[in-house]
């Protein structure tokens, strides 16, 4: 696990530790859609490009994360499905508002969006507000590829490093 940015304090640290120990996060993920997530091919029904959902063409391909798809009903948390330029799923990302962690918010469906997929590693980053999540939050990124592959296929996401 990689943690960058400001260190979460108090309850956030405790909750984050419990979430990581649980094996990943599937926040508000629909179990039927999660079963349709595959390494190649189109995202599950209901998922749209983040650039379309946010009406922001500048987010068509996010360096370091790929072409992101999300079910708009699950915003802001996600899951966000990241695909490389060849259409291969390379990550599953959650953007968890810090305020929800401080309120002891629960996520009873941990891991369902990545069920059956082999996770190479997980990164956790503290993030300021940005289009799509307009408040302080955590990025929890489940990578299906190695760091070396990530950098070759997606480049670096400047806001996470």
Question: What can you see in these coordinates?
Answer:
The structure is a single chain. The protein is of the alpha+beta class. It contains five helices and seven strands; from the N terminus they run E-H-H-E-H-E-E-E-H-E-E-H. The chain has helices at residues 11-21, 31-35, 50-53, 98-102, 147-154, and strands at residues 2-4, 48-49, 67-70, 80-83, 89-97, 121-127, 137-143. A seven-stranded mixed beta sheet has the order 1-6-7-5-4-3-2.
Defining key terms:
single chain, 161 residues, alpha+beta, seven-stranded mixed sheet, 5 helices, globular, disordered N terminus
Structural class: alpha+beta
**What is the element string, with H for helices and E for strands?**
EHHEHEEEHEEH
Helix content: 10-25%
Proportion of strand residues: 15-25%
Largest sheet: 7 strands, mixed
- Identify the overall geometry: globular
Q: Gap between N and C termini, in Å? A: 14 Å
Radius of gyration, in Å, reads 14 Å
Query: How many DSSP-defined strands?
Result: 7
The number of helices is: 5
Mean pLDDT: 75
| Low-confidence runs | 1-35
Strand order of the largest sheet: 1-6-7-5-4-3-2
Structure at a glance:
The protein starts with a strand and ends in a 7-residue tail after the last helix.
Set out the fold topology.
Blueprint: E1 2-4, H1 11-21, H2 31-35, E2 48-49, H3 50-53, E3 67-70, E4 80-83, E5 89-97, H4 98-102, E6 121-127, E7 137-143, H5 147-154
Parallel strand pairs: 1-6
Antiparallel strand pairs: 2-3, 3-4, 4-5, 5-7, 6-7
């Amino acid at each position: 696990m990689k943690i960058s940015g400001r260190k979460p304090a108090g309850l956030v640290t405790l909750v984050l530790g419990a979430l990581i120990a649980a094996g990943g996060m599937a926040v508000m993920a629909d179990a039927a859609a999660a079963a349709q997530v595959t390494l190649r091919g189109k995202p599950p029904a209901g998922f749209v490009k983040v650039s379309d959902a946010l009406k922001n063409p500048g987010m068509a391909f996010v360096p370091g994360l790929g072409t992101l798809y999300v079910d708009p009903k699950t915003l802001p948390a996600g899951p966000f499905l990241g695909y490389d330029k060849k259409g291969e799923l390379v990550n599953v990302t959650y953007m968890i508002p810090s305020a929800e962690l401080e309120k002891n918010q629960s996520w009873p469906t941990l891991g369902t969006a990545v069920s059956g997929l082999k996770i190479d590693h997980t990164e956790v980053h503290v993030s300021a507000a940005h289009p799509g999540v307009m408040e302080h939050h955590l990025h929890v990124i489940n990578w299906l590829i190695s760091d070396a592959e990530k950098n070759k296929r997606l480049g670096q996401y400047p806001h996470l490093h």
